């Protein structure tokens, strides 16, 4: 802990570490005993100093990879005083683990279906982004006069469960439920476009059918592309895309009818 | 892009994990003098223990489920039936619709175990039946929707009635196989796979019925019924009938006759069920 040398030594150095966001969060191999992983907070280690919002710091260049959370922050300011005051609490979004930057990056990946995707993109299962997209989908349906949050929730739960079982059976490596839910949630984004079209004009004509088919294809293509690269499945992209298309087809049915 | 706040730990490296454990060990000595306000609750030793207990309970529960799920659902055996690729699925679907030109129906073996479906088009798989079943339910919902008879619980009703018929078929065939005392390597999962292939024809029929009315429905369904009949006969013949009869050599004997009738009965049940499960969807 060389970084603490320049700090008051009568300081209590906390040891919070954010829980591993993937599904396998409970098998840490017994390191550090039962107390080693119970704190759902932040790792205020030497490399990650918490900056209270009222103490501005010069911006540090982001030296980590985009989709890998790394300890890339190097401190340049004196150690902030950890008091017990309300202002020193971390912002709510940090505490909840919602990182808008990462969400935006993954969204861009979904929106460019022809771009090559890195297999490690889904190493951190992030359910905040998919939650936002589901709520946005429900909201656009609401704008069109359909109060169907329950159906959206139920269908996404059943669909995620089905995809989870199927992918576990089809792939060599297994996959966690959080990863499946995360990928399917992110690829719901084009469906939000479809339901916002439905607000303006009805989708029940020929144009609506073509648009619906195109959007379903887009969603399932992105989802299958991410699954294939994350799980290293070969020559099975269409086979993975088909159940995704069925799931997104049900969402489209809700939007259209 | 500057990111001064480190928001996530890099948990992929053992080094960071070890570092965190080291820090945790040092943090244990000061349970009550936490400097971060939200940690006051967490630093309380009782809540520490509660959380540790809770998480270890969850971990144990997960292990228990993983261990026991293999007893009820043979996951590794099921994985064999899902080892498919796109080429296999394409060829198999073609075979289901047009089985008349295919010559060799034997499943290839590799040191006593059948080869995975990826490598042999004759091997049964569960991907096609599972996908076909789900598609059938959705198409049924669509068909009912276009006739304004749709409601979401009807989907559940369709699904459970189709599943019930499938279960009934499997039980009936297993029972008759037992009664005829035939020595076959036809497992239950194989049987479910074969019986699930008829959903492909049903989907085709209903879709044609939606697009072209009753005429289209009857045409496509008729064609699919005949093809599934031929497909089943050719596939089951190799499984149920004795080796000699399978090669086409007529063998006298009541047992072989009985097996022949059983095969034909199973194959004939397919078109009947295909019609029964779809005629009410097309008006």
From TrEMBL, chain A:
<dbReference type="GO" id="GO:0048280">
    <property type="term" value="P:vesicle fusion with Golgi apparatus"/>
</dbReference>
<keyword id="KW-0812">Transmembrane</keyword>
<dbReference type="GO" id="GO:0005789">
    <property type="term" value="C:endoplasmic reticulum membrane"/>
</dbReference>
<comment type="subunit">
    <text>Interacts with the COPII coat components Sec23 (SEC23A and/or SEC23B) and Sec24 (SEC24A and/or SEC24B). Interacts with YIF1A. May interact with RAB1A. Interacts with YIPF3 and YIPF4.</text>
</comment>
<keyword id="KW-1133">Transmembrane helix</keyword>
<keyword id="KW-0333">Golgi apparatus</keyword>
<dbReference type="Pfam" id="PF04893">
    <property type="entry name" value="Yip1"/>
</dbReference>
<dbReference type="GO" id="GO:0005802">
    <property type="term" value="C:trans-Golgi network"/>
</dbReference>
<feature type="domain" description="Yip1">
    <location>
        <begin position="110"/>
        <end position="254"/>
    </location>
</feature>
<dbReference type="InterPro" id="IPR006977">
    <property type="entry name" value="Yip1_dom"/>
</dbReference>
<feature type="transmembrane region" description="Helical">
    <location>
        <begin position="151"/>
        <end position="170"/>
    </location>
</feature>
<feature type="transmembrane region" description="Helical">
    <location>
        <begin position="177"/>
        <end position="201"/>
    </location>
</feature>
<comment type="similarity">
    <text>Belongs to the YIP1 family.</text>
</comment>
<keyword id="KW-0256">Endoplasmic reticulum</keyword>
<dbReference type="GO" id="GO:0015031">
    <property type="term" value="P:protein transport"/>
</dbReference>
<dbReference type="GO" id="GO:0000139">
    <property type="term" value="C:Golgi membrane"/>
</dbReference>
<dbReference type="GO" id="GO:0006888">
    <property type="term" value="P:endoplasmic reticulum to Golgi vesicle-mediated transport"/>
</dbReference>
<feature type="transmembrane region" description="Helical">
    <location>
        <begin position="207"/>
        <end position="227"/>
    </location>
</feature>
<keyword id="KW-0813">Transport</keyword>
<dbReference type="GO" id="GO:0030134">
    <property type="term" value="C:COPII-coated ER to Golgi transport vesicle"/>
</dbReference>
<keyword id="KW-0931">ER-Golgi transport</keyword>
<comment type="function">
    <text>Plays a role in transport between endoplasmic reticulum and Golgi. In pancreatic beta cells, required to transport proinsulin from endoplasmic reticulum into the Golgi.</text>
</comment>
From TrEMBL, chain B:
<dbReference type="GO" id="GO:0006888">
    <property type="term" value="P:endoplasmic reticulum to Golgi vesicle-mediated transport"/>
</dbReference>
<dbReference type="GO" id="GO:0005793">
    <property type="term" value="C:endoplasmic reticulum-Golgi intermediate compartment"/>
</dbReference>
<comment type="function">
    <text>Has a role in transport between endoplasmic reticulum and Golgi.</text>
</comment>
<feature type="transmembrane region" description="Helical">
    <location>
        <begin position="157"/>
        <end position="179"/>
    </location>
</feature>
<dbReference type="Pfam" id="PF03878">
    <property type="entry name" value="YIF1"/>
</dbReference>
<feature type="transmembrane region" description="Helical">
    <location>
        <begin position="258"/>
        <end position="277"/>
    </location>
</feature>
<dbReference type="GO" id="GO:0015031">
    <property type="term" value="P:protein transport"/>
</dbReference>
<keyword id="KW-0812">Transmembrane</keyword>
<feature type="transmembrane region" description="Helical">
    <location>
        <begin position="126"/>
        <end position="145"/>
    </location>
</feature>
<keyword id="KW-1133">Transmembrane helix</keyword>
<feature type="transmembrane region" description="Helical">
    <location>
        <begin position="191"/>
        <end position="211"/>
    </location>
</feature>
<keyword id="KW-0333">Golgi apparatus</keyword>
<dbReference type="InterPro" id="IPR005578">
    <property type="entry name" value="Yif1_fam"/>
</dbReference>
<dbReference type="GO" id="GO:0030134">
    <property type="term" value="C:COPII-coated ER to Golgi transport vesicle"/>
</dbReference>
<keyword id="KW-0472">Membrane</keyword>
<protein>
    <recommendedName>
        <fullName>Protein YIF1</fullName>
    </recommendedName>
</protein>
<keyword id="KW-0653">Protein transport</keyword>
<keyword id="KW-0256">Endoplasmic reticulum</keyword>
<dbReference type="GO" id="GO:0000139">
    <property type="term" value="C:Golgi membrane"/>
</dbReference>
<dbReference type="GO" id="GO:0005789">
    <property type="term" value="C:endoplasmic reticulum membrane"/>
</dbReference>
<comment type="similarity">
    <text>Belongs to the YIF1 family.</text>
</comment>
<keyword id="KW-0813">Transport</keyword>
């Amino acid at each position: 802990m060389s970084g603490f040398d320049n700090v008051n030594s009568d300081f209590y150095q906390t040891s919070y570490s954010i829980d591993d966001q993937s599904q396998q969060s409970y098998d840490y191999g017994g390191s550090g005993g039962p107390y080693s992983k119970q704190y759902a907070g932040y790792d205020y280690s030497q490399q990650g100093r918490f900056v209270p919002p009222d103490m501005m710091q010069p911006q540090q260049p982001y030296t980590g990879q985009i989709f890998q959370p790394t300890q890339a922050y190097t401190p340049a300011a004196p150690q902030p005083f950890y008091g017990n005051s309300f202002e020193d609490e971390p912002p709510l979004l940090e505490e909840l683990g919602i990182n808008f930057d990462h969400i935006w990056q993954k969204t861009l990946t979904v929106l460019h279906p022809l771009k090559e995707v890195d297999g490690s993109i889904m190493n951190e299962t992030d359910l905040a982004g998919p939650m936002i997209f589901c709520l946005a989908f429900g909201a656009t349906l609401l704008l069109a006069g359909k109060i169907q949050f329950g159906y959206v929730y139920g269908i996404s739960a059943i669909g995620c469960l089905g995809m989870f079982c199927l992918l576990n059976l089809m792939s060599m490596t297994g996959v966690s439920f959080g990863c499946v839910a995360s990928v399917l949630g992110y690829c719901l984004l084009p469906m939000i476009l479809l339901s916002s079209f439905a607000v303006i004009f009805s989708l029940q004509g020929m144009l609506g059918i073509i648009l619906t088919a195109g959007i379903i294809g887009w969603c399932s293509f992105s989802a299958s592309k991410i699954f294939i690269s994350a799980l290293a499945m070969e020559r099975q992209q269409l086979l993975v895309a088909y159940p995704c298309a069925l799931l997104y087809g049900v969402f489209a049915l809700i939007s259209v009818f | 892009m500057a990111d001064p706040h480190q928001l996530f730990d890099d948990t992929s490296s053992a080094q960071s994990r070890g570092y965190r454990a080291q820090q945790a060990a040092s943090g244990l000595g000061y349970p009550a003098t936490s400097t971060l306000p939200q940690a006051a609750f967490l630093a309380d030793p009782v809540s520490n223990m509660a959380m540790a207990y809770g998480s270890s309970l969850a971990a144990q529960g997960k292990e228990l489920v993983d261990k026991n799920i293999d007893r009820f659902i043979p996951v590794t055996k099921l994985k064999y039936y899902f080892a498919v690729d796109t080429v296999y699925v394409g060829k198999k679907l073609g075979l289901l619709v047009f089985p008349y030109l295919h010559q060799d129906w034997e499943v290839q073996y590799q040191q006593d175990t059948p080869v995975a479906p990826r490598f042999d088009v004759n091997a049964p798989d569960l991907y096609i039946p599972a996908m076909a079943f789900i598609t059938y339910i959705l198409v049924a919902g669509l068909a009912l929707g276009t006739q304004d008879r749709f409601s979401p619980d009807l989907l559940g009703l369709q699904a459970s009635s189709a599943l019930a018929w499938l279960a009934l078929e499997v039980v009936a065939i297993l029972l008759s196989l037992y009664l005829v005392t035939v020595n076959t390597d036809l497992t239950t999962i194989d049987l479910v796979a074969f019986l699930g292939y008829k959903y492909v024809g049903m989907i085709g029929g209903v879709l044609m019925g939606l697009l072209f009315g009753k005429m289209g429905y009857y045409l496509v369904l008729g064609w699919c019924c005949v093809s599934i009949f031929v497909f089943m006969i050719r596939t089951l013949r190799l499984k149920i009938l004795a080796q000699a009869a399978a090669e086409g050599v007529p063998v006298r004997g009541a047992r072989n006759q009985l097996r022949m009738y059983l095969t034909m009965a199973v194959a004939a049940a397919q078109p009947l069920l295909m019609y029964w499960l779809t005629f009410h969807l097309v008006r």
